[in-house]
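Section 3.1 - Work completed
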Amino acid sequence: MKARAAVLIAALAPAGAWAGTLVVLNKAEATASFIDVDTGKVVATLPTGQAPHEAATSPDGSRVLATNYGTAAAPGSSLTLFDVAKPAVVKTIDLGVYRRPHGVVWLDARRALVTAEGSKALLVVDVEAGKVEAAVTTAQEVSHMVARTADGARAFVANIGSGSVTVVDVAARRVVGQVRTGKGAEGIDITPDGKRVWVTNREADTVSVVDSGSLDVLSSIETKSFPIRARVTPDGRHVLVSCARSGDVAVFDAASFKEVRRVAVKLEPGAREGRLMDFGASSVPIGIVVTPDGKRAFVAHANADVISVLDLDGWKAVGTLKAGKEPDGMAYSAVAAKP
């Protein structure tokens, strides 16, 4: 399976078997690709701000919100809101003084939580009004990704520079805890029951499991090499971790905290010039999206410019999709994008 020869989804399943839209952010092109997951075709490519990093789908699936992180010379300070069905850019949200938005998750139908790395803050953004409603200072370095409990009561922010997780009471809009997990704490996700927070510590080569109530670190699992994102499957049984340096995806049993397998994805990296992460022969898998039925996962390989498709029943790579240059953050919607 070669990086330059994308295998269309239509070849993997009967027509109509898979529905919905995968929105892929292409960091190096400042664009978002809307892919029909039934056919594997790019339906539309729309503009974003510079270096878009993460995306999240609204609760009803109709909209996707993207963070415009910016470049080294020009830090970003905006979000792009998309209508999935049309597809179209609905608006650009100016974050004012808050710099380098990165992680994003919807809080409810109207509001979203967004990390602002350059401001050491977690923002509550009123998407409808297009403004920052509140900002909670994390007091930590490089506040990167955010996850929240299902009820929206608590948010957890992974801080790369501090090797920690900041715990925020969303309603009170205040920090209620700081948990040290490991150097380079970056990826983060929460089990559906809200009891366990999984954190990837990329520099420490570990994955930490945190009790969301007591905030105790229950386990720190050695995980080679450069674990960068975590995604819990909808049934709560497994956790997928992309390993940027080794180029594969580690799979953990969520109950035993043990790595149970690796899913190898053989992809050839593209030209190294201009890449943010140069890991030699690795395709650099980063972003992970799991479909709501838990049967498929999409993994963005930033250095190969493709998205691999994983079958989570057989735990194997079954195809690739092509978006733009340096894909990273992604969002899935059951809504079909129409050209």
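Second construct:
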Amino acid sequence: MAKFLGYQCSVCGKEFDSDEVTYTCPEDGGNLDIIYDYSTLSKSIKPDVIFASDEPSIWRYTPLLPVDDPGYDHTPLRSVGWTPLYSPHAIKEELGLPNLWIKDDGRNPTASFKDRASAVVVARAKEINAEIVVTASTGNAGAALAGMAAAASHQAVIFAPKTAPPAKIAQLLVFGAQVYLVDGNYDQAFDLSIQAAETFGWYCRNTGFNPFTAEGKKTAAFEIWEQVIAKQNLKKSLCVFVSVGDGNIISGLHKGFKDLKALGWLENMPRIFGVQSVGSAAIANAYENGNEEISAVRADTLADSISVDMPRDGLRALRAATQTNGAYIKVSDEAILEGIARLGVEGIFAEPAASTAFAGLQKAIQSDLITSQDPVVVMSTGSGLKDVNAAQKSVKAAPIIAPNLTALKKAMK
């Protein structure tokens, strides 16, 4: 028996059986939510069972996922998720937030949040006997798929813009993926990957297209619930800050919290804040306009992981904020670079897309969107090693000195 009941379109609300569709709504192209029998689930599993689990990965939540545990013990697939939470004292004092945590998903096997989605998609590929999985990516989603596919002996095909950071392309190649660098932007690579999937019968992982991606990403919400809300016994709604590009991470977090609410395990829905670069702010623009009409932009930001002309999961991403009393915030590339440096001196190495969420928190405080009494979690979604060029721009260059004390003393002055 399927672990989930089927799918529901986020646009028209129409429901489909689990074997009727694969990707998006055939009626209007809307993104699909996977639906569960929450009443039965709440009777078959209790929070204490999860709290007692010694599984240090997303697979501790297997009963709440649409796939079975794929196995592959002692591989990177077993190390996805259950990422650490930091509570840096200096930043807490500086921002006046005594209850602040930073969740570092750069600690995942391929160094980004995207491992969560790819692990679940690869598990799904195993269940439906799909040997080849394809995706479009600016780097992180591709690396995540390539790494998870390699761990499960699947073949991965990646389409990436030729402008993607070299470190991310190197990851794809090292993991053994078939990589095609597209002479165009992410949106063009996305469209080409779908055409290729349809032509060659490949299983498509694309963010905001395959409904199982959000199911993987919702595991971060489960971890936040377990690591912060339940552990700290929070009575006040948690504020969660996350960077937004295509919109699938924030919609996945929202889905996770909604699942917990439906199960009766979450009392207060967290307020979710989406943060976008001013150079790639299609969803934030719609939020400011007070409607759900998301129009394409010409993306131009150094945060390549969230550089998107037309978000593929924009509607659900917008609703993640509007339905939780959150907000969308725009930040400059300069603020993003400053965020890299600020987090760095706390021992957290964030890529531009990851520091975007922190920059959004700073602006939210300045704009009185939150108060000092609000508990806050900031999602740091990827390691700074993904984009060393951006990291170098965020700090002053190291001085070059002659190999003697005289030169050292002169430089020290």
